[in-house]
Amino acid sequence: MASRDTASPVTAKAGGRLAGKDLINIGIFTAIYFVVVFAVACLGFVPIRMAAICGIIPLVAGIPYMLFLTRARKFGMVTILGLLTGIIMFITGMGYFSIATGLICGLVADLIWKSGGYASSSRAVLSHGVFSCWIIGNFLPFLVTADAYLPTVRAQYGDAYVDELMTYLQPEMYPVLLVACFVTGIIGGFIGRAVLKKHFKRAGIA
Fold first, then answer.
1. Which of 119, 123, 135, 199 is the most exposed place for a label (fewest CB within 10 A)?
2. pLDDT value at position 13?
3. C-alpha pair distances (Å), 48 with each of 44, 80, 94
4. What pLDDT does 12 receive?
5. Which residues of the chain, if any, have pLDDT below 50?
6. What is the pLDDT of residue 3?
7. Residue 111 neighbours by CB under 8 Å, 6+ apart
8. Orientation angle between helical segments 121-131 and 77-91, nearest 10 degrees
C-alpha cells in the first residue's frame, strides 16, 4: 500500500520555476491573508486584545493559508507570501521587523511544505505553525526600538493605552508570545485542514 505522503498524479506536477499563474495566486492570497490580519487587528483597540493577537490571527488565518497550500506547489510561493505580508505590515506602520520575520518564517515554512512533497497534510499543518511566527515581528518594535516607536503609538492611541499595553509586553513575555503564535498556528492549521478536507483530497494532499 502506498504511503499517505506519496505524491499523487496532481502533486507529481509540483516543482519547477514560478509562472505567471503562481504569482497571481500569491497576490490573491496575500490580499486575502492581509484582510484576515487586518480584521483581527481591529481588536487591538483594547490593549489586552492587542497582546492576544499573536494567538488569534493564526486561528483565523489557518483556513486561507491551508487553501493557499493547495495551490502552492512550487518552492518560493510561501516565502514570497511571508515577505509580502511583512512588507504590508511595514507600510501600515508596524515597523520593519515584520519584513525579516515574514521572510524567515515564510522560508522555513516553505521548506517544511516542500519536504512533504507538497502532498503531506501533516507538513501543511506544521508549515502553518511556523509561518504564523512572523507575527512576533509586529511586537518587536515595542521591545527593540521602543524609544523611537512608542512616541508614535502614544500620539495615535494616547498614554493610557500605551501604558496598559506595555504591562502585557514585558520582555519575558516575548517567548510566550512566540510559542502562542506557533501553537495556535498548529491549531489553526488543523482547523483549516478540517474545513478544506474536500479541497485537500482534490489536490492530492493526504
1. 199
2. 59
3. 8, 31, 17
4. 39
5. 1-12
6. 39
7. 75
8. 20
* pLDDT at position 73: 93
pLDDT at 46: 86
In degrees rounded to 5, what are phi and psi of residue 35? Answer: -60, -40
H-helix segments, the chain: 20-41, 47-69, 77-91, 97-115, 121-131, 140-144, 146-157, 159-168, 174-195, 197-202
Sign of CA dihedral 146, 149, 154, 156: negative
Residue 139: closest CA among 23, 36, 57, 29: 57
State the amino acid at position 181 in one-letter form.
C
How far is 206 from 70, CA to CA, in rounded Å?
Answer: 11
User: What is the number of other CB atoms lying within 10 angstroms of the CB of residue 119?
Assistant: 24
Cell, residue 51:
497582546
Among 129, 130, 132, 112, smallest CA distance to 72 is for 112
Q: What pTM was estimated for this model as a whole? A: 0.88
Q: DSSP string covering 81-111, please?
A: HHHHHHHHHHHTTS-SHHHHHHHHHHHHHHH
The whole-angstrom separation of Cα 147 and Cα 161 is 16
Q: Which residue has the cell 516565502?
A: 79
Structure confidence by residue, pLDDT tens digits, 138-152? 999 999 999 999 999
Q: What share of the chain is helix, strand, coil (3-state, %, to 5)?
A: 80, 0, 20
Alpha-carbon distance 57 to 62, whole Å?
8
State the cell numbers at 167.
504591562
Q: Are 187 and 59 in contact (CB under 8 A)?
A: yes
